[in-house]
Specification:
The protein is mainly alpha-helical and 210 residues long. The protein has a single domain, classed as Up-down Bundle (Rhopdopsin 7-helix transmembrane proteins), CATH 1.20.1070.
């Protein structure tokens, strides 16, 4: 009987095949950029994570911070804001995987790190949502503003995916199960990859229509 890990692996492998095929097209059209590279690295890590043990989780933490920082930078966030967002994401993601990476700590209650991560990421989601809402009220709608708004929307979605995964892990930790968190973690990876694919350079841009 197949387990959820087998289903997740199948989803990741299918997504990897699609992204690799799309990458070859973009390379041929000279439209390959950093977002496309991030999508491939994310999926390769997801596929090989069972073989990498705790190093796979460390790489996942780093990639989550990099994707958030890249989207924030592309959306026009100041350097300090970008570093703050990516720093909070990396720190809270580290808390969620602390038991897998360093093992259970004797002087800290088992669910405390993931509960802290869920609380901080929900607070970060509220902060990012408020900042985007306030900044958009002061803007006039132009094509550049619409593109920035798309990136800011993706930033909210990314932080929301991280917060949802942490909340699911917190819930599963208190029940001493991992069924919900496994599913939400797969969704989070899919969201990260989707953000990279959606914001990669448009391969149809500049093509002459006949």
């Amino acid at each position: 009987m197949a387990h959820f890990d087998d289903l997740a692996a199948m989803v990741y492998r299918g997504a990897l095949l699609f992204v690799v095929a799309n990458t070859f097209i973009k390379i041929g059209l000279q439209k390959f950029n950093g977002f496309d590279a991030l999508a491939i690295v994310l999926l390769i890590n997801a596929v090989t994570q069972p073989l990498l043990t705790h190093y796979g989780y460390i790489l996942e933490i780093a990639l989550s911070g990099i994707v958030v920082a890249t989207v924030a930078f592309s959306a026009g966030a100041p350097r300090k804001a970008m570093l703050f967002l990516s720093g909070v994401v990396v720190f809270t993601e580290s808390l969620t995987w602390s038991e897998r990476i360093v093992g259970e700590m004797d002087d800290i209650e088992r669910c405390t790190p993931v509960n802290m991560a869920a609380t901080m990421q929900c607070g970060l989601l509220a902060l990012v949502g408020y900042a985007v809402y306030v900044s958009e009220e002061d803007r006039n709608n132009t094509d550049d503003d619409e593109q920035d708004m798309q990136l800011k929307t993706w930033l909210i979605i990314l932080v929301g995916a991280c917060a949802a995964r942490s909340a699911a892990m917190s819930y599963d930790c208190m029940r001493d199960k991992k069924s919900i968190s496994q599913f939400v973690n797969m969704l989070k990876t899919v969201v990260l990859v989707s953000a990279c694919v959606a914001n990669g350079e448009d391969e149809t841009a500049g093509v002459t229509e006949y």
